[in-house]
Design a protein that fits this description.
heterodimer, B: about 240 residues, mainly alpha, 12 helices
Chain lengths: ~110, ~240
């Protein structure tokens, strides 16, 4: 590793940033002024829960690319507590504290 | 002309709301930014490049993927392709803001686009209807959104700098990195009463776990595309549209 020159590493950062920039501008650039087709609007309404679940599930069940549901059980339980509290009472700060608190409590218990 | 510079009370409220949201996200940013900064140095970045990277890319997962793949000795085109594909989900965020900014100036639209990340999109999803219900014009929404965005962007650069210049200043035993998924878990808990949301979460979670090992970090994008397609194909998808 580390055989790359600073120039090629800079090129990687530039290209990743450029690609990300274009993705971010994809529907906000001057070329995207028209009305979105209705099926796209429908898909956009349905997307958030799918995206967030797909973002976080691997963080909870995998560690360094390896399936670790057993080792991560405390985190999974703590995340469930955070979810349940948010579903019950709403808000964001309290559910976050409930989740972090649960994890530290579980660390003390076993 | 100068009238535009004076903020109305409702805009001030929106800015305060945005600052509160940003403050709440700060612990997760410290944890993630620190790790990201450290990983950039491990990949052979100079401190300056490691600092420019969060400012230009502004995407934690893709920055970490980039460092990990460089360390693993992957070809550079694979590094670029994988890191960009991790951010492909932001196309959905871009599209989600499109209808809101239909009448906006191009500079505003581009600025909103530049700062798009998971966190401001997620908080937008929660507050969108709030701002709509209140019958507020887009000015308040924009004040809220840009406040979170600029605050998070600066926080992201600073927390990366923390890792670059100071290393692991926060002990692992604090489990601060766990607050990263928790922020999204809390938002999902708030969404659970929306029709189809629980099903969407289940489908998204199962797909992302099953497709995790796909090459070029395609798992996330594939999960979103397949998951939303499944939801759209279900007859009850029409109800969610109203």
């Amino acid at each position: 590793m580390n055989t790359h020159s600073l120039l090629s590493l800079s090129a990687v950062v530039f290209l990743v940033g450029l690609g990300t920039f274009l993705i971010r501008q994809s529907f906000l650039g001057p070329w995207a002024r028209g009305e979105l087709p209705s099926y796209v609007q429908k898909a956009l309404k349905l997307a958030p829960p799918v995206i967030f679940a797909a973002l976080i599930a691997p963080m909870l069940f995998y560690t360094d690319g390896v399936w670790q549901a057993g080792t991560n059980s405390k985190k999974i339980i703590a995340a469930a507590a955070c979810f349940a509290y948010a579903a019950w009472r709403g808000g964001q700060i309290m559910p976050l504290l409930v989740g972090m608190g649960s994890l530290h409590l579980l660390h003390r218990l076993y | 002309m100068n009238v535009n510079l004076r903020l109305r009370a409702s805009q001030k409220e929106a800015i305060l709301d945005g600052l509160k949201t940003s403050a709440m996200l700060t612990p997760a940013y410290i944890a993630f930014g620190m790790v990201t900064g450290i990983s950039a140095l491990q990949a052979g970045f100079s401190p300056l490049l490691a600092l420019l990277s969060p400012a230009w890319i502004f995407g934690g997962s893709s920055q970490v993927v980039m460092s990990e793949l460089i360390i693993a000795g992957a070809p550079l085109w694979v590094v670029v392709a994988s890191a960009v594909l991790v951010n492909a989900r932001m196309m959905v965020y871009s599209a989600a803001f499109n209808p809101l900014l239909k009448e906006a100036r191009q500079s505003t639209r581009s600025a909103v686009g530049f700062f798009l990340v998971d966190q401001n999109y997620a908080n937008h999803c929660l507050r969108d209807s709030e701002y709509e219900r209140a019958g507020k014009p887009n000015r308040e929404w924009l004040a809220y959104y840009l406040t979170i965005s600029v605050a998070l962007w600066l926080t992201w650069i600073c927390t990366n700098a923390l890792g670059i210049f100071l290393g692991r200043v926060i002990p692992v035993s604090w489990e601060l990195t766990f607050s990263i998924p928790l922020c999204f878990v809390a938002i999902m808990g708030n969404m659970v009463r929306q029709s189809q949301a629980p099903l969407g979460m289940l489908i998204g979670a199962v797909l992302s776990l099953a497709l995790f090992a796909l090459p070029l970090k395609l798992g996330l994008v594939a999960s979103v595309v397949i998951g939303v397609s499944i939801l759209m194909a279900l007859p009850s998808a029409d109800r969610a549209n109203t």
